[in-house]
Specification:
3-stranded mixed β-sheet
């Protein structure tokens, strides 16, 4: 049930049970005992809705009273006894001052998530580079897949939508384009042939700006050939199709577990596209976009209740997991 009355922040939901990274503020109010979480536009609270699943592990936390229209609260955990919190922009300078902590040395992708949250483009570029190097030591194919899908493509889409006011149907299509690289070529997947002539100059310009911005992640440093490909990635089976060789998607809960999986299975290349805890959004996007089996991997002693439910609490993947088991 949705509520719009003020709620008190009383706990933090910890889906991974490790008190590490951004946790989910949980509220109580409106005469209900069940915990709720805030719905928002990314900046301010618009309503309070039930926490799902209700069995998520939580940590007690006193965070004051919050209401609709208030800045969205956030909490970052270094451990159960070491957390940084704030409302909206409040407190971010404290978190920013700690991005050089030893905590982040083995967690460059988590540091990147923090830099993105802070809107610090300089730190973001540095942690993108560290994350890429970290992955590349295990598997170059997985590192390149992460770079193209989790860094280049979101940056490219953002660059595209800065341009002139597109018609809604054109903007919707542009927001789904994918940018990938191979040698001295950059491939833009998903171009609609009916609007190719209209969008091609802007698309190529946005691609070049994106490649320049993320040059540290790319082997090729000269002039790029920008190739526009029509169709939905993963269906056309073009030899340069970024999704052509993907057999399944695997989301791994836990930083150490993700590294272990990459060490053991990195040699399979992109046949298994692996997502770590910092790339939950990428996993969700690929699940929706690519018709491939998708799996969530838990360590046996981490989340038995989640495994019994057959899905990860962050996604509501019960149906997806059942479909995968039946396939």
């Amino acid at each position: 049930m949705i509520s719009v009355v003020p709620h008190k922040l009383v706990a933090l939901a910890d889906p991974l049970g490790r008190a590490c990274g951004f946790l989910i503020p949980a509220f109580r109010g409106g005469g209900a005992n069940a915990l709720r979480v805030a719905e928002s536009d990314g900046k301010s609270i618009s309503a309070f809705v039930p926490l799902e699943p209700a069995e998520l592990e939580t940590i007690e936390f006193e965070g004051g009273v919050h209401g609709v229209g208030d800045p969205l609260p956030w909490v970052f955990a270094f451990s159960k006894d070491d957390m940084v919190s704030g409302r909206g922009l409040e407190g971010r300078e404290v978190l920013a001052a700690r991005t050089g902590d030893a905590f982040f040395v083995r967690r460059p992708m988590l540091a990147l998530e923090v830099a993105q949250f802070l809107g610090d483009e300089s730190a973001q570029a540095e942690f993108e580079h560290r994350s890429y190097d970290h992955l590349n030591r295990v598997s170059s194919s997985q590192a390149n897949a992460w770079r193209d899908y989790s860094v280049l493509t979101p940056s490219f889409r953002k660059q595209l939508l800065k341009h002139e006011a597109w018609a809604p149907h054109v903007a919707e299509r542009l927001a789904k384009l994918v940018l990938s690289t191979e040698r001295n070529c950059a491939f833009v997947h998903g171009i609609d042939d009916s609007s190719r002539e209209q969008v091609e100059p802007v698309v190529k310009q946005a691609a070049r700006k994106t490649l320049k911005r993320h040059a540290r992640l790319l082997d090729h440093q000269g002039k790029w050939d920008i190739v526009l490909l029509s169709g939905t990635p993963g269906r056309a089976r073009d030899p340069h199709d970024f999704d052509a060789n993907v057999g399944c998607l695997l989301y791994v809960h836990g930083w150490d577990d993700a590294e272990a999986v990459l060490r053991e299975f990195g040699h399979v290349g992109d046949a298994v596209r692996i997502f770590g805890p910092a790339d939950r959004r990428g996993f969700d996007q690929d699940r929706a976009r690519i018709s491939r089996p998708a799996f969530v991997l838990f360590r046996t002693d981490d989340a038995p209740s989640d495994m019994e439910a057959g899905a990860g609490p962050l996604y509501g993947l019960e149906a997806q997991a059942r479909e995968s088991r039946q396939a």
